[in-house]
Amino acid sequence: MTDSGNKKVVFRIAGVGFSLAVESLMEISEARRSDIDTSVADPDHGLLGLISFRDDAIRVLDVRKLLDLPSSDDDSVLMIVIGTDGAWGFTIEKIDIVAHEGEFKECVVPALLLRDGQRPFAALDVWQNEPLVRFDPALIEQLKVSV
Amino acid sequence: MMKMILLTLAGQKFSSSVEKIRHILAEPEIFPLVCLRRGICGIILYEGETIPVLDHQASGDIGKYLVVFQSDYGDVGLSVDSGMTIVDAEDGSFESVVSEEIDALASQVFSFKGVSYPLLDLNNILTQLTD
User: Fold this and answer.
1) Residue B58 — very low, low, confident or very high, per pLDDT cuts 50/70/90?
2) CB B7 within 8 Å of CB B19
């Protein structure tokens, strides 16, 4: 049996590095646009569409839009995470590595850094001298699209 | 004896008291993040601390050095274009800027050898940062 606990996935979106606790992750697969039912897409609320997952239809959120990052058609990886009200998916450019939690050092977010009102992350994880945004599905799904 | 640093930001000359400078770093890596406050372009890591970097360069270019200033809001980095000069404050003079000329960056000038160097007012700049 392999040790899958206390690990974090390091991934990138638009060049920004993120860390995600493995316990928040349900699946990593190839992102295929054709798999996403965009008939229910709601760009104003950051919803790309729905996707079939384990006999259910779950939301695919446009995390780029929610985080005010440039859009791209080149995302190649679909991540399914556990949100507050169930699973949801989002696409990313690539996964760098899965590393043991002990390799990450938590860093406080300077008060000056973030816009008032929205808190897309509560902490930074420093990994190999790079600050990574700690990806918390519960915080991300509460974000509103910037106008 | 108070020392002043003379520097260039986005092609403009400025001055600051050396006492307000915490570090001067050569070409540190500036990391992008998400949902940053307008006026902040990223952060640097220095001795385990994260320091926001002000995005004052209209061109978007990053200067050769990053000066980390202490402010009422914590440490903040400013990218400077080239070399810096340190002089004794008593070799120059301080003058108030007439109100029409006051902008976000300075409300006083330090005059040295006939050249006026607006005195950086970091607290004022940071106060004016908006979402």
Assistant:
1) very low
2) no
Strands (E), A4-85: 7-13, 16-21, 25-30, 47-53, 56-61, 77-83
Reported residue count of chain B is: 131
- Is the per-residue pLDDT at A4 higher than 70? no
Query: pTM value?
Result: 0.85
Question: How many angstroms separate the CA atoms of A141 and B100, rounded?
Answer: 47
- The DSSP H or E segment spanning A140 is helix A137-140
Nearest CA to B76 out of B30, B109, B8, B117 is that of B30
Tell me the two tokens of residue B39. 């006026």
- Which residue spans within chain B are E strands per DSSP? 3-9, 12-17, 21-26, 40-46, 49-54, 65-69, 76-80, 85-88, 93-96, 106-112, 115-120
Of B35, B50, B52, the CB nearest to A67: B35
Q: State the burial class of residue B50 (Cβ atoms within 10 Å of its Cβ: 0-12, 13-18, 19+).
A: buried
A113–B31 C-beta distance less than 8 A: no
Q: What is the mean pLDDT of chain A?
A: 90
Give the lowest-confidence range in A21-30, A82-91, A132-141, B58-67: B58-67
List the single residue in B45, B48, B131 with the smallest CB-CB distance to A115: B131
Report the C-alpha gap between A42 and A23 in whole angstroms.
28
Contact at CB, B48 and A16, closer than 8 angstroms: no
> Do the Cβ atoms of A124 and B52 come within 8 Å?
no
Measured between alpha carbons, how far is residue B87 from residues A47, B92, B121 in Å?
Answer: 57, 9, 19
Contact B43, B31 (CB under 8 A): yes
